Amino acid sequence: MKKVVSMAAIVMTAGVFAGCSTAKTTTKGNQTTGNTIKIGVNMELSGAAAGYGQSQKQGIQLAASEINKDGGINVNGKKKKIKLVIRDNKTSNNTSASVAAQLTNNDKVVAIVGPATTNAGTAEIPNITKAAVPSVSPSATDPAYTLKKNGKVQPYVFRACYQNNFQGATAAKFMTNTLKAKRVAVYADNSSDYGTGLAKAFKKAYTGKVVDSQFFTAGDKDFNAVLTSFKSKKIDAIYAPGYYTEIGLIIKQARQAGINVPIVGSDGMADPKLAQIAGNNNASKIYYTTPFSDDVAKANPTAVKFMNKYKAKYNQDAPTFSALAYDSVYMIKQAIENEKSADSVKIAKGLAKIKNFDGVTGNITMDKEHNPEKPIAIEELTKGKVSESFNVK
Amino acid sequence: MQTFFQQIINGLSLGSIYALLALGYTMVYGIIKLINFAHGDIYMLGAFWGYYVINVWHFNFISALLSAMLVGAASGVIIEYFAYRPLRHSPRITALITAIGVSFLLENGMSYLFTSNTRDFPQIIKQVNYHLGGVQISNIQILILATSCILMILLQLIIKKTKMGRAMRAVSVDADAAELVGININWTISFTFALGSSLAGAAGVLIGLYYNSIDPLMGMTPGIKAFVAAVLGGIGSVPGASVGGFIIGILETFVQSIGLSAYKDAVVYFVLIVILLILPAGIFGKNTKEKV
């Protein structure tokens, strides 16, 4: 097994070096030639995060087909159509790096959407930076994702979602101000930077008492042991940052064990599947921070259009991940049109300058560290349905 | 104290699933000295089968369980026939690598065919909670415990009292000698795979019902933990596997209840290392002569 891994590593490194030599052309970055703009997709289409990758792929495809139906992206007066090059990184860091090399060197894409997870996204950075091709991750939330080790911003790395500190702090404020929770237990996913990062951010910002802090791993199915110990500690609420697959089960098992306190989570819960897994009767007093709440969406014509089109095409309600991926494609389009060029270096410049971009997930302005600034909302579920939505300032 | 007993109940429910899976590992190992890594994935197939028949054909719990056991048995036999039988006389490492390959094939094949999304398992039995002196136990937990115990007793009877069981024991002691006295080795090995895999199929449906969530990769972690349980009990020993399963389940629960949830998997693997160093034959490995 070890041998196989090291072999794979050698092959992978060889691939990277091979890419290195071909990338040394006279001009920096990839240019758009002909009448199509090639956009690469480096996505988790199989493996542990495939659920998110697949929803994002649907959002990306919807955006691309919509843009192409309108004739394409306006590059300095000439309309060019998008051609998507979709590749699977199998939720593996190694594969993500080699997929990035393939996309930038062989497929000559001018921008990349993805990956969905911070880990796979970080693995991609050396190769896209070498090739000078920007990438927009719809859902890599780690605060350090867009930053270099020395704290400077990565020039080619962007994201469409909040970073953890903002979401964690919002949840903490909501716990204190709205739920009046004084004793909170934290139960976080420690198999991803997403879960651990949010838990850290929450604990830093929360002013009440964190009575217990426990962890689970993606793929876990049994949470009874930890929930039973929470039950004996007189808690007012549980903060559970993670994805709907596990949080759904935590909600179900907590309610069945007789724990009826509010459970607050993050945008990884914003999926209709959450209530299906938890069971509608269990999914009450459930709150999560989200950029894409139904109420916010109703006031936003871009979002209404997106939700209707998504439903018509895929016959399901649009999950947050699809909305973020959809926005990522449109952000690239915006960057191309602003810079009047579809060359990869120009697109990176354009992405960094995005201002008041009218996205499905709110009005987006890119900050200095390539994080989108946009409004945040908290949704409440009652019997599995969104019953209220709170604005947190 | 209430919390303590509640954790025991939690541990027993979790442990009974590990025990059911560990039995499959231990039986296959006992008879052909192969660690069948695809075993956890047969458990996944059982869960998906249950999902399908309950949703599409509206089976009730008992028929879903029994049919999942049949499907588990059939897939175990098919895997043995195509993947392991041609390698029976090759070095053991070849068969082991094949087992890992079969496991990957099943996981990724199912992801490809049915997407890797998590599905909610149809809740055919409504959960009812009983309270006994402050300790809460649900009808589904009782059902899981009872079903596992019945299946384990049944298995023990088959191995001890039937002709086929005697053949299995004979093959595990000495395959060549067993063949000389007229035992059909291929048939016996197929039967062992069928028996072990049917338990995995049953575990799949039970887990689906208990946790209400199934996905193509669900067999990975429980499969490995069940393997640890089998080693802990003494691989090759049937009672050892049951006891090992319960021990691992309770251990995992207690590690979490004392606040070390981040290390619950690490503790299980730590136990594996300790057992291999101190007691390589496992708890029951030395005492029991019969290996199946």
What attributes characterize this protein structure?
heterodimer; A: 393 residues; alpha/beta; Rossmann fold; seven-stranded mixed sheet; six-stranded mixed sheet; globular; B: 292 residues; mainly alpha; two-stranded antiparallel sheet; 11 helices; 2 strands; 3% strand
Please give the radius of gyration of chain A in angstroms.
21 Å
**How many domain modules of chain B?**
1
Query: Helical region count of chain B?
Result: 11
Q: What's the CATH class label of the largest domain in chain A?
A: Alpha Beta
Enumerate how many helices of chain A there are, as a single number. Answer: 13
Distance from first to last alpha carbon of chain B: 40 Å
Biggest sheet statistics of chain A: 7 strands, mixed
Instruction: Work out the helicity level of chain B.
Output: over 70%
Name of the CATH first level of chain B: Mainly Alpha
Going by CATH, the homologous superfamily of the largest domain in chain A would be Response regulator
Assembly form of the protein: heterodimer
Q: Give average pLDDT of chain B, whole number.
A: 86
CATH topology of the largest domain in chain A: Rossmann fold
Query: Greatest chain-chain interface?
Result: A-B, 34 and 40 residues
The secondary structure category of chain A is alpha/beta
* Order of the strands making up the biggest sheet of chain A: 8-7-9-10-11-15-16
Membrane topology (chain B): Multi-pass membrane protein
Family (chain B): Belongs to the binding-protein-dependent transport system permease family. LivHM subfamily.
GO molecular function, one term (chain B): L-isoleucine transmembrane transporter activity
Protein name (chain B): Branched-chain amino acid ABC transporter, permease protein
